[in-house]
Amino acid sequence: MKKVYSVFKPLRHLKYLLKKPITKDFKDIFDNPREVADNYRGFHVNDWEECIGCSTCGEICPTEAITMVERSELEDKDGSLQLRPTIDYGRCCFCALCVDVCTTSSLKMSKEYLYNDPDPDSFYFMPTDTFNGKEVKLGYEKDESSDLLDLERVSMEHLSPDERKGSFLEIIKGYSKEQAIHEASRCVECGICTNACPAHMNIPEYITAIWENNFEEALTEIYKTNPLPAVCGRICTHNCETACALTQRGDAVAIRWLKRYIVDNAPKDIYDSVILEQVSKEVNGKVAIIGAGPSGLAAAYYLRTIGYNVEIFEQMPLAGGVMRYGIPKYRLPDEAIDQDISFIEKIGVKINLNTKVTDTMLADFNKNYDAVFTGSGFFAGRKIPMPGHDHKDCIAAMDFLPLGRDYGRGTVKELDVHENVVIIGGGNVAFDVARTVVRYQNEKFGKSNVMMAALESEDALPADLEEVVEGREEGVKYHFGMGPQEIVIKNNKIKGLKVKKVISIFDTEGNFNPSFEENSEQLLEATQVFMAIGQSPDYSYLSDENQNKMNINRGKIEVKENGQVKGIDWLFAGGDIVKGPDVISGVANGHNAAIGIDEYLSKKNK
Amino acid sequence: MREIKLFLGPQHPGMHGNTSVHMYVEGDIIKKSYLLPGMLHRGFEKGMEQRTWINNIALIPRICVVEPDINEMVFAMGVETLAGIEVPERAHYIRMIILELARISIHLMAYGGIGGPTGHYTLMYHAQADRNRILEIFEKITGHRIYHQYIVPGGVRKDLPVGIEDEINEFLDDLASRYLEIRDLGIENPTIRKRLVDHILLPSEVVWELGVTGVGMRSATNKPYDLRKVLPYARYDQIDFEVPMADYSDAECRVDLKLQEVVQCIGIIKQCLAKMPEGPVRAKMDGNALKFRVPKGQVYAAVESSRGEFGYYIVSDGGTKPYRVAVRGASFPQGLLGVEKYLPGTRLDDAALWFDTMGVCSPEIDR
User: Same CATH topology for A286-379+560-605 and A382-407+415-534?
Assistant: First the structure.
């Protein structure tokens, strides 16, 4: 049957004439705008307190609407840049990818969608936490699923505590290619790390090179600022990771381990070509370097790449300084140091081992060389002058660690380590001693008893967190927040260390002046005490005349910005004797001094 | 009689998008016509090669303004296939809800679109009012009304907001209750029927010749060729629905099929809301989005859009950007070739209706 269509049927829609209109009056658009959804992607708001200026928002912007503008009034500190995003709303498409990728979550979107101005330039502005000077309701914010960052670090394979506490094997095993590329793909290339690194390494560049699987590029970038990557890839204090933008909400990129991945895995021919390529034609100039530690080696490497004849004088039988004789083998195996040093030697740096520089030799250097760099380091141990510190079983860390290191490499067969030991100190060196002793005790006695006492409480220790964690796993017993008072000696034998609970370390004026709780005395029973409370320099090679010319302040030599010792033109210095206290600072000093020496000699030879 | 050259679009209320039709008419009969694309100045396919995979999320919805979600869906499907990403179950259902809401919205828009050329503007306003309610739902879910940028490789960008299920259900019930009323105003209105019935025919030979898919094909050939059935994506294989079809394709038949599809869409969304499991909505990907790389390979991903088979052919060289993306616009055959071959012979006042009922979306041609 054919359907009949009536012209009257559509008229039923006339009923809508009596209903309220759903459209909005034009004049209401500005005066009384529609309330938008909670998730609305309107104009941006940016909390400047939280924002770190990493420019990741600008990187991802599909319309290139975001540019970073320098704001010098912002505080210049590690972990943030003096930049804030500016958005061109003539380009912005309100996709909110910038919000999703923001490292801090400071960038959000508001419910504001109306803005009207005859001036086109006014559509280009920096979002703050208000919009047009008024408080706004928040719209789109990122959540867990819209987050475009990978906040979880690729886990690194470690030796288990049981495996490592009885041996000096290296703990960290290193990334595989897949792991390294995955870890590198977490980096947002903001460069905040570069600012935080003492040597200002080109970190984003070499991480990107890893991600692109380009060893040559990665090595080139690394060697521009650091000739000790195999060492730094293992034991660097990684200020970069502390500053990393990802730490705002997650784990930092494992920058140190990525560096290690490159040097461990780069094919030898690429390595050779990269390193030899950087050496310039020889120039007329000879430089003597005292100490083959991080700063000396770095200075030598960069002077040599500029073309100078460089000779290093090292008192120990092996080059490396504190890397070779201070840091234990389980953290930094000899092979890694050898690798770095072999490349430095390969480009023509001569290292004279077993040569202790004396004041007369230094005078000769002044005659026979155009400039001298000293990085003699803090190699002597220090002790707290407390009762009992002069007992033979109270040993300073730097007197023990070189022997421990020699034991690890097999040149020393026996160490003077007792069954019950207490260590004073809470820095990385104290942990080096403690964990070396644990290993030795386990090898020798099948069990360990090591205690540590330090003024600082556990959360304020100067040591790295991983040292604290791993030390505990290996069985070191902590007595932190306990101030050592006296080494108790009976019958010429150490009975233990007397400690008291610390109330505060500094007085109200901020000076070091620890105060202790009364009646909190405790005896940590041990027959041997190690003191790891800092190291000191040995300036015996500087004659009195020289020492009088220069300023030595609390053991550190004062230098000009280019590394030149104040008072002696031909002498440059770096490393622990200038700044310290880590390898990367030494490398930075060495590199800086190399540039300084080059400038000094260029001027002199003119 | 003298032959006159006339332009339909790009500035014309009856034109669908930024494109122009050049027509030579004698009296009111179109004698010759051809499409002049290139008014959009976008170069989507080339533009996609210059943007990272993740940045393309902001670009691709623009390839079809009224139904942007299909672009997001095919792009996401292609990338997921190449990169081997497993989409969470809940995301599949959310995607279907979005796609079907979009389908209702574009069918309503097309239905309202016949109001203009036939002089029944009430129809257009009422259809737009209902579409507006869908846009409001989209705004709540995605944060935007038109360019949602919501379906992304790995799932969807965010979970549904709390309480949106009730709102969708309420809207669907309301729409269903007014279904007959909406039909009365347009397709069952005798004055409009006079313009639709037996006009703008699409014979099955033309379908095969041009490669027309979607409503056009189903209305002409009586074949249930619908990708949701023949090559199910998301979780369409777990949903019951019918594919409306017919064997005589005039303008009325195609409009009718679209309205019947709206009914099916309502059923699909209701089933999705009922079946949707709890859980994550986006697969976690390694590395940050700036460094997201898609493994080397090529893939063709296609979905059933409101106008037919809509697909992307994506080639990746393993980098952070697509090496090449080609868009198979659903309305490309009828929009470009059909205009030249089959628009002539119709009357001038049918031209706008021709575009509306054939379902032409010009950026798909001009991409």
Answer: yes
Superfamily designation of domain B3-356: Cytochrome-c3 Hydrogenase, chain B (1.10.645.10)
Report the gap between the CA of B2 and the closest CA in chain A (Å).
38
Strands of B47-184 (E only): list them. Answer: 151-152, 155-156
Q: Domain extents for chain B? A: 3-356
Put simply, the answer to whether B140 touches A39 (Cβ < 8 Å) is yes
CB–CB contact A39 B51 (8 Å): no
Helices (H), A284-381: 294-306, 322-325, 334-346, 359-368
Beta strands at A528-531 and A394-396: parallel, antiparallel or unpaired: parallel
pLDDT digits (tens, 9 = 90+) for B111-163: 999 998 888 889 999 999 999 999 999 999 999 999 999 999 999 999 999 99
Helices (H), A390-500: 397-409, 428-445, 465-473
Q: Who among A139, A148, A182 is closest to B54 (CB)? A: A148
Q: Looking at domain A286-379+560-605, what is its CATH homologous superfamily?
A: FAD/NAD(P)-binding domain (3.50.50.60)
Residues of A in Cβ contact (< 8 Å) with B282: 145-146
Q: Name the residue among B184, B193, B286 with its Cβ closest to that of A182.
A: B286
Q: What is the nearest CA distance from A125 to chain B, expressed in angstroms?
A: 21
How many residue pairs bridge chain A and chain B with CB atoms within 8 Å of each other?
Answer: 122
Contact B181 A59 (CB under 8 A): no
d(Cα A287, Cα B81) in Å, to the nearest integer? Answer: 61
Q: What digits encode the pLDDT tens for the residues A401-412?
A: 998 888 888 888
**Residue A488: its H or E element:** strand A482-490
According to CATH, the topology of domain A29-125 is Alpha-Beta Plaits (3.30.70)
In sequence order, which residues have a C-beta less than 8 Å from that of residue B317 and are 6 or more positions away? Answer: B296, B323
* A161-277 is a CATH 3.40.50.10210 domain: no
Q: Give the pLDDT of residue A1.
A: 62
Beta-bridged to residue A552, according to DSSP, are: A557
Each residue's pLDDT tens digit, A508-552:
888 888 888 888 888 999 999 999 988 888 898 988 888 889 888
pLDDT in tens, A111-142: 999 888 999 999 998 999 999 888 999 999 99
Average pLDDT over chain A, rounded to an integer: 91
